[in-house]
Amino acid sequence: MLQRLKRYLTGDAFRDGSRDSSKLRSDGGEQTGRLRGSSELRSDGGTAVESESRLPSLDSEFVRSLPFWLPPFLLMGLFVYGAIGWNFVLSLTDFSGLSLPTYAISQFDFETYAKAFSDPTFWIAARNTVILLVVFTGFCLVIGLLLAILVDQKIRFENTFRTIYLLPMSLSFVVTAVFWRWMYNPQSGVINLVLNAVLTTLGLDPISTNWLGGSISTGILGAIPLVPDVLYYRLFAIMFALTWQFSGYAMVVYLAGLRAIPDDHYEAARVDGASTLRMYQRVIVPQLRSSTISAAVVLMVFALKAFDFLYVLFGSNPGPFGDILSTMMYREAFSANNWAYGATIGLILFAMALTVIGPYLYSEYRRGEL
């Protein structure tokens, strides 16, 4: 369908009719007929160009396909790209939600962007967003790869294990947040109950750690550059819960990649005397590059969309040790009525998403997959 649409837009479909325009003369030469849109020789030696419309006829496939793709194209253009454009225009105003914004071009400025880049709260939220993006994605990929290798060993009840590992991904962020808020409860949470049972068995004192608000001193590790003196549990608790939810997705992607590798590669590595670890390290894992990139892009997008999870756990203000750009955007726009500033943070978050997805789409385009 796309190839046909491209031919109609470029006019190739209307040039096809010129292929049969040549006929043999009686003396064996070629008699060239009058081509559509072709040039003819004038009596004075010049050329007369015949212009003809390239628009498709009403009974063409292009016109008949319009009712199927034009309405969703217009709706997406209005409600997606139009909303992004309006959000950018709004970020150039001083709209605070109490009156209509002024759309005079002479009054547009980048004051809200300068405010964001000079706001310490913005940089804290941006730092937490990047940490969540990198650490969460890395943990999911590592755990997903290990699970995929284990499930790929032709074990019994493979489908059951695969379903169990993938089941958390089917839950919404809201359900996951409520579930882990109960798990992290200092008094009645399952995590502390299990840890206290183990500590009591070992003859140690029980604990009542507040996983969503506590902290721990790094001790002598604090002397290392970039290592803070105190580590707060909140951001790590968020990443642990999200890793539990989405590791199954990485497992499925890697498992599909493993099943696509021919058995000859495994057999050749074993014939060469490679151990199982060396075989996966040198032969199998390098062939999972495409699976790794695909899974990493999707996981990073999920990390940028973790607003629901944090909002259920902490509300619109998770504090400096759990705040990310999406929660800051919501807080500035809907709680503080700084709509222009909230739109600015939203555009910066959108730019981060493009930074994640753009290189992947470009690489797929270069490989001919798009």
UniProtKB/TrEMBL annotation:
One of its GO terms (cellular component) is plasma membrane. Signal peptide: none annotated. Its main location: membrane. This is Carbohydrate ABC transporter permease. PROSITE patterns: ABC_TM1. The keyword S-adenosyl-L-methionine does not apply. It is found in: Cell membrane. It is a multi-pass membrane protein. Residues 13-52 are annotated as: Disordered. Residues 13-28 have a biased composition (Basic and acidic residues). The lineage of its organism: Archaea, Methanobacteriati, Methanobacteriota, Stenosarchaea group, Halobacteria. Keywords: Cell membrane, Membrane, Transmembrane, Transmembrane helix, Transport. The chain crosses the membrane at residues 68-89, 130-151, 163-183, 231-256, 292-314, 339-362. Pfam families: BPD_transp_1. PANTHER family: ABC TRANSPORTER PERMEASE PROTEIN (PTHR30193:SF42). Residues 126-358 form the ABC transmembrane type-1 domain. SUPFAM superfamilies: MetI-like (SSF161098). The keyword ATP-binding does not apply. Belongs to the binding-protein-dependent transport system permease family.
